[in-house]
Amino acid sequence: MQRRHLLQASGALLLPAFARAQGAYPARPNRYNVPVAAGGGNDMIARVVGERWGNALGQAFVVDNIGGGGGVVASQTAARAAADGYTLMQGYVATHGTNPATRKVPYDAIKDFTPIGMIGATPNVLAVTSSLPVKTVAEFIDYVKKNPGKINYGSAGQGSLTHLTMELFKIETGVFMTHIPYRGIAPAINDVLGGQTQAMFPGLAAALPHIRSGRMRPLAVTGLQRNPLLKDVPTLDEAGLKGFDAMQWYGSVGPAGMPADVVKRLNDTQVAVLKAPDLREKLASEAVEPWPMSPTEFADYIRAEIARWTKVAQARNIHLDE
Q: Which pLDDT score is estimated for 50?
């Protein structure tokens, strides 16, 4: 009798591993935390990818919008969840890049999470007001140097990607421009259009309508390849700033300590979704290019992003919690 009970207990312990080996994960819907309110690009990406990802897994992805603290609340919620693969989060450049670099956040963007994979990215655009007499990056650098103290640039706020990218540009080129932070990208763009500020680094999706209307002039894009939506606009690397990179990116993460087989299943299905021909069309409204990665590649990318923006923040004395 005792031996039978021991065998039954041993079998019960082996059931979770056996079930996963038989492909039982997921056995119920997945909660997918999105660190912004409903609506907008980040949310749209989560819903478009999540729907297809859920179909590939055979269980729905339930999008849960958790705004607050610039992504801090959603990040804490995901980090504290059970590491069973049923709570994931759409991390992005703020939650796992610029925020940890510029302020003290109540989570470790590396140690508290399991990277699943990159979803995609969109470049930022070095753009100037159409009245500025420059058409290339070289001309812009020369113009700023010849007009010291007269050029202002806008950003979506202190510590945002649009802020740090221009600060990186200033470090790389040695130019001086005054930073004018705004509460969001829309008012920052409006003042470039009106000429109150002369330059900025908006995301491509936000800038594109104004570029097409001729009210904003693109000089170069971030990233190491030209963007298909602006085929005639060079990268900053092509314009002479070798290795210059700054992308608005989105990826999926889960709590630390997730089982390797669950992570592999999630990554395999996510990559398959990202390679589907129709997905690129669906993400085109946010100018996002699918960018599949393995969990290891994505983990390395997150580390590099935090290191990049921490270096910029330290060089420019950007510490938002002081």
A: 98
Q: Answer yes or no: is pLDDT of 4 > 60.
A: no
> Which residues 6+ apart lie within 8 Å of 95 measured at CB?
35, 70, 71, 72, 74, 75, 89, 109
Q: Could you tell me what percentage of the chain is helix, strand and coil, using 3-state DSSP and rounding each to the nearest 5?
A: 45, 20, 35
Structure tokens at 286: 């946010």
Residues 266 and 112: beta-carbon distance below 8 Å: no
Comparing CA positions, the residue from 279, 128, 260, 110 lying closest to residue 192 is 128
Topology adopted by domain 125-230:
D-Maltodextrin-Binding Protein; domain 2 (3.40.190)
Say yes or no: do domains 30-121+248-315 and 125-230 share a fold. Answer: yes
| Of 157 and 4, the one with more pLDDT | 157
Cβ atoms 119, 274 nearer than 8 A: yes
Asked if residue 191 has pLDDT above 60, the reply is yes
With 0-12 CB in 10 A as exposed, 13-18 as middle and 19+ as buried, what is 1? exposed
Q: Could you give the count of Cα atoms lying within 13 Å of 278 in the half-sphere of its Cβ? A: 3
Cβ 166 vs Cβ 155: under 8 Å: yes
Region 106-116 average pLDDT: 98
Domain at 30-121+248-315: CATH code: 3.40.190.150
| Boundaries of every domain in the chain | 30-121+248-315, 125-230
What is the spatial order of strands in the sheet that 247-255 belongs to? 61-65, 30-34, 87-92, 247-255, 113-123, 289-290
List of residues 6+ apart from 310 with CB closer than 8 A = 100, 101
Q: Using one digit for the tens of pLDDT, what is the confidence trace for 232-261?
A: 999 999 999 999 999 999 999 999 999 999
Interval 168-177: pLDDT, tens:
999 999 999 9
The pair of structure tokens assigned to 303 is 């580390």
As to burial, measured by CB atoms within 10 angstroms (0-12 exposed, 13-18 middle, 19+ buried), residue 240 is: middle
Cis peptide before 26 (omega within 30 of 0): yes
262 vs 195: CA distance, rounded Å: 52
